[in-house]
Amino acid sequence: MNKWSTLLPGAFSLLFWSIIVQPDLIEAALAAAFFLVVPAVLYVSAVSLPGRTRLCWFGAAWSGALSMMMETGITAMVFSVVWFLFTAYIAWKGLSRLMTRGTAPLEETVVDAGLVYVAVGGAWFVLSRAGTAPLLPYTEVIVDLTAVHFHYAACLLPVLTGLLGRRRYYREVSGRPLLYRILAAGITAGPVLTAVAVDQGPPLEAVLVGIYVVFLYWFAGWSIKEAFSMPLFSKITITISSFILIGTMTLSILYSTGRAAGYQVIGIAGMIPWHGAWNAFAFSILALIGWALVSPGPRAAYHSFPVSRLRGKENIAERIEQNQRLHATDGLFASWDTYKKKDFDPEMLSPLVSAFYTHTDRFRMKADVQWRFSLLYHASSYFSKKMKQINVPPTGKGDMDGKMYSVGEQQDGRPDPRVWLRSHAGTGSPVFTAVYSHHTKEDVTYLNVGLPLPVGVMTGILRPDNGKDGALVLTSRKRSDVCGDEGIYVTVGRWTWKTPLQETFNMKQTKEDILEAEHTMAIGRFRFLRITYCLPLMTSQGSRHDGAGRFAGE
Q1: Is a pLDDT exceeding 60 seen at residue 372?
Q2: Coiled-coil regions in this chain (predicted)?
Q3: What's the half-sphere exposure (Cβ side, CA atoms, 13 Å) at 389?
Q4: Domain boundaries for CATH 2.40.128 within the chain
Q5: CATH class of 7-294
Q6: Which of 156, 158, 351, 421 has the fewest C-beta atoms lying within 10 Å of its C-beta?
Q7: CB atoms inside a 10 Å sphere around CB 386
Q8: 100 and 303 in contact (C-beta within 8 Å)?
Q9: Bridge partners for 437 per DSSP
Q10: Model confidence over 74-121: pLDDT tens digits?
């Protein structure tokens, strides 16, 4: 969302509405969230929304504001639902980012959590305007304050924690990634702790609120420390906002401990102006202004790689051969030159490893399949046998055959796509149908492998690395900076999601004419499948090939 074309109309709308309505503090806080805080959060977090979304936001914000000008009931609820739908869209955007990117890097996941919490605030706002407090185990004031809480602290604090993590990364602050992980987990879980505390009441309330406040003190202190490296105005606003947060959180501790001890240090009537108003207006606005001036962006543009257009139904291998204009070829790609980059040198590969990818049809394939649990094989084969895709055999040894084809770039949508059909040597039953291509981002060229599925395509983005003694490592695991495209993705329609699957190929030359490759599949760090390939080089008319040098002259 564009900064000024959004915030200026929002500010004028808030002022105009406030003059007409003269709201109380809770209503003013909610209106400020509609017109200023939520769009500002989207701006500072660099979460892109379509251009037309600005009009949707403006209409939804006014609909929420108008609902507070009505008596609670059906009509007010209908207007509040419009605002809720907009917050639900923001939450979906956060979930989409998470599913597309995966849980790393952590600072982006924290931002996504803040976006999801906005929709919780929208839902509580609907409950408030519908007048459902008598049906709930809470007072009307608690319902209203819960809506405020999820529009402010629950949304804003995770986003600001994410921005802190972004800046920490770009400044290359050496130190303690574990500490940031703990802080991010605490800030993200805080709204849930608060909700449980409100529901359970004392004495558990004081304990849970106390835990959350410790994380907020930590966040405020870290923000003050980070602010010293920022421009002057950001330094001032973020430092002041952090001290305000420390003060208002101290009031929360006094309120909760007072309830647990049975005497009132500060009541709910005092919490609204001192805790709620200072957080809603002073802390939120100052923090957003300070971070907007430095506005660190994400580490990388995630999911900006090409995806194969080829799709399949049942008997995918047969349909690919029947329906596509294929031309026989001998390798997965024509040359290693495309992959030569700063961090990977194909010339360091052993000649036979190099030759496998440019002359794949010259090698036989003997596979030794090892499933970690037979139950996983049976669950997988139930679906894969029907598709005849990713149809990994049970634990055991066997030979595989392969056919290599090139396919038109217009059909696939990626450069120089090559189809590799693998099948059981004895039965001819398909095992894998994969379409190999590549793409380059930030000086890394990845293997971009598409596996057509009945309703979409699975894409493996593999980074080539040099192994020991001329070996090749292809992996979907990201490097420590988690800026790359590596991963296993599933695309259905226009939507692409990152799966928790990880795969690694490790190929090395073991004898003069024999390669050995190990293919492992895992969910996170849990490995559930290992396939060890023996790849002997086939002889041709009595002559023996020993690598890329022999192939080049043919």
Answers
A1: yes
A2: none
A3: 24
A4: 316-536
A5: mainly alpha
A6: 351
A7: 12
A8: yes
A9: 448
A10: 999 999 999 999 999 999 988 888 888 888 888 899 999 999 999 999
Quote the pTM value: 0.80
Place of tokens 């709201």: 23
Q: Tell me the C-alpha to C-alpha distance, in Å, between residue 362 and each of 330, 357, 401, 404, 433.
A: 8, 10, 11, 11, 19
Listed in order, the ranges of the chain carrying CATH 1.20.1070 are 7-294
316-536 maps to which CATH number?
A: 2.40.128
How far is Cα 382 from Cα 370, in angstroms, rounded to an integer?
A: 18
Phi, psi of 424, deg, nearest 5: -65, 130
| 327 secondary structure, DSSP code | E
Whole-number Å distance between alpha carbons of 189 and 438 = 40
Which tokens belong to 481?
A: 């900076």
C-alpha–C-alpha distance, residues 521 and 352, integer Å: 24
Question: pLDDT (tens digit, 9 = 90+) per residue, 457-499?
Answer: 999 999 999 998 889 999 999 887 778 889 999 998 888 889 9
CA atoms of 356 and 533, how far apart (whole Å):
13
Helix axes 232-261, 204-227, angle to 10 degrees: 170
Q: What residues contact 45, with CB distance under 8 A and at least 6 apart? A: 111, 114, 115, 159, 162, 163
> 554: which residues sit within 8 A by CB, 6+ positions away?
none
CB 44 within 8 A of CB 11: no
Which residues 6+ apart lie within 8 Å of 97 measured at CB?
A: 47, 108, 111, 112, 115, 302
What pLDDT is recorded for position 473?
94
Using DSSP, how many helices (H) and how many strands (E) does the chain show?
18, 13
Kindly write down the DSSP assignment for every residue of 65-86, as one continuous string.
HHHTTS-TTHHHHHHHHHHHHH
Residue type, 367: A
Using an 8 Å Cβ cutoff, are 436 and 417 in contact?
Answer: yes
Selection from 378, 419, 368, 420 nearest residue 398 by Cα? 368
User: What is the spatial distance between Cα 67 and Cα 130, in angstroms, rounded to a whole number?
Assistant: 10
Mean per-residue pLDDT for 1-27? 79
Phi/psi of residue 519, each to 5°?
Answer: -115, 115
Model confidence at 158, pLDDT cuts 50, 70, 90, reads very high
| Cα 337 from Cα 346, distance rounded (Å) | 8
- Asked if 9 and 54 touch (Cβ cutoff 8 Å), the reply is no
Tokens of 494: 């226009």
- DSSP reduced 3-state for 299: coil
DSSP type of residue 338: G
DSSP E strand stretches across 320-375 = 326-328, 365-371
φ and ψ of 40, to 5 deg: -65, -35
